[in-house]
Automatic annotation (TrEMBL):
Any one Gene Ontology BP term: proteolysis
Transmembrane segments: 12-33, 39-68, 163-188, 194-221
Cofactor binding, note field: Binds 1 zinc ion per subunit.
Cofactor annotation: Zn(2+)
Protein name: M48 family metalloprotease
InterPro entries according to UniProt: HtpX_protease, Peptidase_M48
Domain Peptidase M48: 99-281
Keyword Protease annotated: yes
Record's keyword terms, sorted: Cell membrane, Hydrolase, Membrane, Metal-binding, Metalloprotease, Protease, Transmembrane, Transmembrane helix, Zinc
Ribonucleoprotein is among the record's keywords: no
A GO MF label: metal ion binding
The organism's taxonomic lineage, starting at the top: Bacteria, Bacillati, Bacillota, Clostridia, Lachnospirales
Species: Blautia wexlerae
Amino acid sequence: MDIWHRLGRIIRISNLGTVIFFALNILLIIAVFGSSGNIFELILIYFITVTISLSPIGEVFLAAFAGARDIKRVDIKLRVIPLVQYVLDKANENTPYCPKKVKVLLVHDSAPNAFALGKRTLCITDGLLTLSDDMILGVLAHEIGHLSYGHTVIQLLIGGGNLFISGCLLLIKLSCWIFSAIMGLFAIGSRSGIIGLITGLFAGISTVLSWLWVKFCMLFLMWSMRQNEYLADKFAYRIGFGLELATVLDQHLSDVPNDGFLKALYSTHPCNDDRVAALQNLGVPYSRYHY
């Protein structure tokens, strides 16, 4: 039964953008390096970097990169650990694929927030501890939803994949810059305006194409991430913390930029109003106004 739950978490419409993201990355490797005859080795290296990122090493590095550290203060442990355990107990009553235990780390940030990493890591900020217990429970339920659905494992996959693809793009850029520099020197030596113009156009076009490729791929990835936020919200509702989550979304958590279509398109989260509305449609009796 466990294998079917695991497959069910991966084979979702919300993960379609991530699948397209990885497929486009593989196509980039084939298109750029296919003529070299080493395409199999390159794809193998790509998957090796992804595999390493999925190991405990990847999770540790991701936490360190996020500035998350072990909680050392007793008072913070006494405040947050029972709340985390309460949500975990509720989650395990409602789903068979929720982690039994999580590792809680602290990020020194005054903004109230939390995020999940890897397979069993939950990070909270100092600012989250300024909220009421009910609000903290809502946030924790959402993040444990990410862990339960495997969204955070996908983050590790993205991290490993991006590391290799970034290296490929850097190699392409360096090759273009070296070629442009050589041609530029040749143009100066020969005093050829035509060669100089062609060299400038080549350098500019190659830079723009690399930038456009990254932006194009990220469109699909950001879409998947936004859809997964709704799934984690729904998970919080299912285990009994929908009202708490709607309250904290509406009153305390920072919202995504709403001053431009492109900013919203490349955001990792939907706007809070849309998330609250989705929770209300599920049956959460939340209202900002008292009648």
